[in-house]
Write a structure and sequence with these properties.
Elements: E1 3-8, H1 16-31, E2 35-40, H2 46-57, H3 64-91, E3 96-99, E4 106-108, E5 117-120, H4 123-130, E6 134-137, E7 141-143, E8 149-151, H5 156-167, E9 172-177, E10 182-183, E11 195-196, E12 198-200, H6 201-209, H7 217-226, E13 230-234, H8 243-246, E14 251-254, E15 268-284, H9 289-299, E16 304-309, E17 316-324, H10 328-343, E18 347-360, H11 370-380, E19 387-391, E20 394-400, H12 404-414
Parallel strand pairs: 1-2, 1-9, 2-6, 3-6, 9-13, 12-14
Antiparallel strand pairs: 4-5, 7-8, 10-11, 13-14, 15-17, 15-18, 16-17, 18-20, 19-20
Length: 428
C-alpha cells in the first residue's frame, strides 16, 4: 500500500460527467489498496469567469485590498470542484472528505494572487487516510498568518499537489492533464512532436520556466527540492484502464541520470508568447545602475527574465530586459514615474510583441557548437535575434513574435527531434 497524490486540471473537472470519471479513476486506485489524496483545480473556465466579474467591478487603481478580495473570490472555484468530487466518490461507495486550503491548513505568505507555500500541517489529512477515507484538498490556495485566504497564482494547483506530496512523503504524485505527457515541443505547433517517456528534473525545470505549459514552474521546483517523483499523464484515457499500465504511462520526471542522457543533446523546444521587452536608453554608465533599475522592478514584485546591457559609448549605455506581458504596462509606468527622474536616462522604450524560443537538453553540457547551430538555423530562416540568454542546459533567444512558430518548427527539425529516440538525434 502506497500513499499516492492525484492532481486533476480544470479540463478534467469540466463537467459533472468528467468529475464522475475522475471519481471512478480515484476509486480504482483506492480499491487497489492505495491511500489517496486528490488535488483538483476549479472546473474549466470557472476561475476566468470569476476574475472577469471582478474586472468589471474593479476600481481604476486597484490596491492590495483588491488583491485580497480576488483571492477570496478565486478560491471558491476549487472549493466547489473539491466538494463535487467528494460527493461523486461517495456515490462510488468510497468514504471521502474535502478540505479547503485553510482547513488543512496550507500556510502561505501574504502575497495575494501569487502567494508562496511556507508549511503544510498533514495531521488532519493523515487521520482521515488512516480511517480509510479518500481526502480531497483544494488546489491553488492556502491561508496566511493573519487568517486571510490566499491563492498561489495561475497553475497553482500543480504546486499544491506537489507540496502536499512532499509534506506527506507520498510514493508518487500523478498530474493528470489534457495531454498524455511532456512532448519535445507543443504538438499544436509541430505535429511531428514526440512524447518523452522520461525527462530529467533539470530539463523539466528549464522547460517549465521557458514557457512549457505542461507543469507550473513552482511545482517542478518543489518536486526538485523534496525529490517528489512526478508523472504527467492523461485524464482522458478510459477510467478503467489497467492500473499497472496507467502507473507507467505519460512522462516520468526523473532525478536519476541514465546512461543515455549523455547522448540527448537537445530534448525539447520551449517557447513563450507572454513576453515583453523594456529598454532604458541613454543610462549613465556607472556602478549601481542595474540595481537602480531592476531593484525598483523587483520591489514591485515584477519578475525579470532576460537582461542585456550594451557597451558604453560616451559614458552612456542602453539597458534592456524582459518581463511577463501582463506586467509590461505596470513596469513601464513604474520606471517612468519612479526611476527615470533620478536616473538621468534619455527615454524608455517598450516592445510587447516579442516571444522567447529556447532549446533545452541535459546533453548540451558536454557538446560544443549547439548554440551556433541554433543561430545558424534561425539565420537561414531570416529570423533576427534581439536578445540571447544561456545556461548549462538551455539557450534562449528573444525574437519578433510573428516568427515564433516558424522558429520552433525549424529548430525542431534541425535538432532531429522528430526522429525516434526520446529526444536524441537519429544515429547515422
Amino acid at each position: 500500500m502506497a500513499l499516492i497524490v492525484h492532481k486533476y486540471g480544470g479540463t478534467s473537472m469540466g463537467s459533472t460527467e468528467r468529475i464522475r470519471n475522475v471519481a471512478k479513476r480515484v476509486a480504482k486506485w483506492a480499491r487497489a489498496g492505495h491511500q489517496m489524496v486528490v488535488v483538483p483545480s476549479a472546473m474549466s473556465g470557472e476561475t476566468n469567469r470569476l476574475l472577469g466579474l471582478a474586472k468589471e467591478l474593479a476600481p481604476a487603481k486597484p490596491t492590495g485590498a483588491y488583491s485580497r478580495e480576488l483571492d477570496m473570490l478565486a478560491a471558491t472555484g476549487e472549493q466547489a470542484s473539491s466538494a463535487l468530487l467528494a460527493i461523486a466518490l461517495q456515490t462510488e461507495g468510497m468514504e471521502s472528505v474535502s478540505y479547503a486550503g485553510w482547513q488543512v491548513p496550507i500556510r502561505t505568505d501574504s502575497a495575494y494572487t501569487k502567494a508562496r507555500i511556507e508549511s503544510i500541517d498533514d495531521a488532519r489529512v493523515r487521520a482521515d487516510l488512516d480511517a480509510g477515507r479518500v481526502v480531497i484538498v483544494t488546489g491553488f490556495q492556502g491561508i496566511d498568518d493573519q487568517g486571510h485566504i490566499t491563492t498561489l497564482g495561475r497553475g497553482g494547483s500543480d504546486t499544491s499537489a506537489v507540496a502536499v506530496a512532499a509534506a506527506m512523503k507520498a510514493h508518487e504524485c500523478l498530474i493528470y492533464t489534457d495531454v498524455d505527457g511532456v512532448y519535445t515541443t507543443d504538438p499544436r505547433v509541430v505535429p511531428e512532436a514526440r512524447r518523452l517517456q522520461t525527462v530529467s528534473f533539470e530539463e523539466m525545470l528549464e522547460m517549465a520556466s521557458l514557457g512549457s505549459k505542461v507543469l507550473q514552474i513552482r511545482s517542478v521546483e518543489f518536486a526538485g527540492k523534496y525529490k517528489v517523483p512526478l508523472r504527467v499523464l492523461s485524464s482522458f484515457t478510459p477510467w478503467d484502464i489497467d492500473i499497472n499500465e496507467e502507473a507507467k504511462s505519460g512522462t516520468l520526471i526523473t532525478f536519476e541520470e541514465d546512461e543515455q542522457m549523455e547522448q540527448a543533446i537537445v530534448s525539447g523546444i520551449a517557447f513563450s508568447r507572454e513576453e515583453a521587452k523594456i529598454s532604458v536608453l541613454g543610462v549613465p554608465d556607472k556602478p549601481g545602475i542595474a540595481y537602480q533599475i531592476l531593484g525598483a522592478v523587483a520591489d514591485a514584485n515584477i519578475e525579470v527574465d532576460v537582461i542585456i546591457q550594451n557597451i558604453s559609448k560616451d559614458g552612456k549605455t542602453d539597458f534592456s530586459f524582459t518581463v511577463n506581458r501582463s506586467e509590461f504596462a505596470r513596469a513601464v509606468d513604474l520606471l517612468k514615474d519612479k526611476v527615470l527622474p533620478g536616473l538621468g536616462a534619455q527615454e524608455i522604450k517598450g516592445d510587447p510583441k516579442i516571444c522567447k524560443v529556447s532549446i533545452v537538453g541535459i546533453g548540451m553540457r558536454s557538446h560544443v557548437g549547439i548554440a551556433s547551430q541554433m543561430f545558424r538555423c534561425l539565420s537561414e530562416e531570416g529570423i533576427n535575434i534581439q536578445m540571447i540568454s544561456t545556461s548549462e542546459i538551455k539557450t534562449s533567444v528573444v525574437i519578433d513574435e510573428k516568427y515564433m512558430e516558424l522558429a520552433v518548427r525549424a529548430l525542431h527539425k534541425t535538432f532531429d527531434l522528430d526522429q525516434p529516440g526520446n529526444g536524441k538525434p537519429a544515429q547515422s
